[in-house]
Amino acid sequence: MVEAGIFLADVACEISARGFLNALLREWRGWSLVPATEVDPDAGPGARRLRIPLPSRGSVVEIALVHVSAVGLHVFRLPFREYRAGAPARIMAFPDFAAAIAYEPEIVGPEAARAAPAFLGRVFQSLAAIEDLLARAPSSGLGRHGDPSFRDAERALRFGHAVHPTPRSRDAFTLEEARSFAPEYGRGFPLRWWSAAPEAVVQGSARAESAADFSAGLAAEDSALDRRILAASEGRVLLPMHPWQAARLTLDPAVDALFRSGQLIDHGPGGSPWFATTSLRSLYAPHARLMLKHSLSLRLTNSLRLIKPVECARGLAVDALLQGPIGAAIAARWPRFHILGEPGYLALRGADGALLPQTIVALRDNPFRGSGQRPAAVLAALCEIDPDGRGSALADTILRIAAREGGARGAETVAIDWFDRFLDAAVRPLLELQCAYGLLFGAHQQNLVIGLADGWPAEAFFRDCQGTGFVREFLPMLAEAAPGLDLGSGHLFTAAEAARIVAYYLIVNSVFAVIGAIAVAGLAREDVLIRHLRRFVEALAGTDLPDKTCLRLLLEAPTLGSKGNFMICFRNINENTDVTDPLAHHVGLPNPLAVDSAEVRP
Q: At 1, is the pLDDT very low, low, confident or very high (cuts 50, 70, 90)?
């Protein structure tokens, strides 16, 4: 909770500085930790400060550290103080500090002057967005009083990527549009329904039902949708459009030509409300059997969010694979782990017959349907650190369990038990799927949903199969299990490459976030949780899994790769189009699993 009397702008700066600094410290090594000084009167024994030199200004900047993390999730306390020889310390506001970093060649490189303006524009846009939602979207208290619904958890992620300099930047999205369409504000909105002549539509399905039939079913099953829309679209293909994207597409010459020719008709908004999930472009409605993932013509953090045709093909390939013997084996071996299939997609084709990526809508299974849906929370919302720099929904959940169970099970015991159960429910299947089947899922925090039972992790769901990869060494086995299936649409990696990718997405991004949230709240020490994680990986490495490349990497590598979000953002790289090798922008993070101690370098 934000205490009364504290300016929201100050809180927004605290939150923004945390993501900015944690991203910077992973990619630039010129920082150091120094003992706290008399300017930190409330600092305890051993307290330290972060020191950052700024050679072009002839100064150093320091900020107090509240929590020093072996997994790279430090917590800081404002203000920044700038020191110059022979001059008194100067308080430095976060925007000034961000600008000093952006224009410092020793930190960001020789392109500082060229790249800084656009970068700082996103930093300040993100900062303003965080301040606005602190005022308009107060904390939901997720996990404090009971297990959340899927929808409640999706709106509870307020501050975005925890290790990013611009976690809430959304190019081309105004603040008013964010209030209408962003998940953290919790507002539902109707879809905009278009219909197209069949020859103007590109579609694909991995199941007996066509994508057009899926879409027509969504419309027919929505009791709030005007039946006249269904009647007017008879003999045509209904397209469930995101209203924001639909408004932009009417200005697109290729789409406008379809309207002018009569091949495309706009039936207007209608039906029950849909709600954005944490990814913004994926929509959920409690009544619907499918979720929708739309192309959006805007840049979120690092990427322009247009779906590629190859991603649609990849989703179909994974769905088809899961409908066969491999899917049956996965369901039998890991009954508490679920992969949300993406069985179809729809798009418009232009006058030249080519698919228009800006019009793509992909279809995704929805296991969280109806009023009696099972409690579940996206991992990113559970692990997001509160404005106070200590609490989180995960911490509240653990404290709720401890209060309920009482007795000898204190909060630390519950926290460690929760972590172990999380590893078993979510991490074990994902690691074993790679080691046993060569299936590589990008299981970062926003793609992992944890099913909860009285606060405990009971099951896990993975979403976003369009980013799935396959390990080359397993292709003969996969081809034999799914004859005729084109696996070439998937990302293809060697076992060594796949090991590095899963180490980032699953371990650094997801598991380390759980460790960080528990430790920041003071519920269990990081080194204790890291030892549990190491023992867990060692136990897997002791089994008969056919490919243990990833497990050996986790146990032995001196560093683990972490995506270089700071410089990707600073250099204005669009990950969706400018990055073909997902490992190209990884930087080394000291691997706490590979050493006896979890100390951060001084």
A: very low
- Degrees (nearest 5) of the Cα angle 593, 597, 599? 100
- Structure-token pair, residue 485: 């299936």
Write down the domain spans for the chain: 8-142, 169-365, 376-594
CATH code at 8-142: 3.30.310
The pLDDT of residue 139: 82
Name every residue whose Cβ is closer than 8 Å to that of residue 290 and which is 6 or more positions away in sequence. Answer: 214, 218, 363, 364, 365, 366
- The two tokens of residue 181 are 């369409």
Strands (E), 401-526: 439-440, 448-453, 456-462, 469-471, 491-493
Residues in the chain: 602
Structure tokens at 412: 């630390």
CA nearest 81: which of 48, 31, 39? 39
Q: How far is CA 347 from CA 203, 270, 341, 490, in A?
A: 6, 20, 19, 20
More confident residue, 373 or 508: 508
Q: How confident is the model at residue 228 (pLDDT cuts 50, 70, 90)?
A: very high
The count of other CB atoms within 10 Å of the CB of residue 135 is 12
What is the CA 591 to chain-centroid distance, rounded? 22
As a whole number of angstroms, the distance between CA 392 and CA 508 comes to: 18
Q: Are 152 and 178 in contact (CB under 8 A)?
A: no
CB 170 within 8 Å of CB 184: no
Measured CA to CA, the distance from residue 132 to residue 155 in angstroms comes to: 15
Q: Could you give the CA distance from residue 315 to residue 204 in angstroms, rounded to a whole number?
A: 10
Q: For 142-160, how does the pLDDT look when each residue is reduced to its tens digit (9 = 90+)?
A: 989 999 999 999 999 999 9
Q: Are 422 and 377 in contact (CB under 8 A)?
A: no
The string of pLDDT tens digits covering residues 296-320 is: 998 887 778 899 999 999 999 999 9
Residue whose C-alpha is closest to residue 318's, from 444, 441, 471 = 441
**Close Cβ partners of 148 (under 8 Å, ≥ 6 residues apart):** 140, 142, 156, 375, 376, 377, 393, 452
In this predicted structure, what is the pLDDT of residue 408? 63
Query: Strand order in 376-378's β-sheet?
Result: 337-339, 456-462, 448-453, 376-378
| Alpha carbons 531 and 258: distance in angstroms, whole number | 60
Q: Give the C-alpha separation, 148 to 247, whole Å.
A: 33
* CATH fold for domain 376-594: Transferase(Phosphotransferase); domain 1 (1.10.510)
pLDDT recorded at residue 299: 83
Q: Residue 518 burial by CB count (10 A; 0-12/13-18/19+): exposed, middle or buried?
A: buried
pLDDT band at 7 (very low <50, low <70, confident <90, very high): confident
Decide: 159 and 168 in contact? Cβ < 8 Å: yes
Summarize pLDDT for 30-53 with one digit per residue, the tens. Answer: 999 999 876 665 556 678 999 999
Question: Prior bond to 343 cis, omega within 30?
Answer: no
Mean pLDDT over each residue of the chain, to the nearest integer: 92
Per-residue pLDDT averaged across 391-415, rounded? 91
Count Cβ neighbours within 10 Å for each residue of 568-590 and write b for 16 or more, e otherwise: bbbbebebeeebeebeebbbebb
- Residue 492: beta bridge partners? 470
Question: Which whole number is the average pLDDT over 113-117?
Answer: 96
Read off the tokens for 356: 């228009």
Residue carrying structure tokens 């997801």: 510
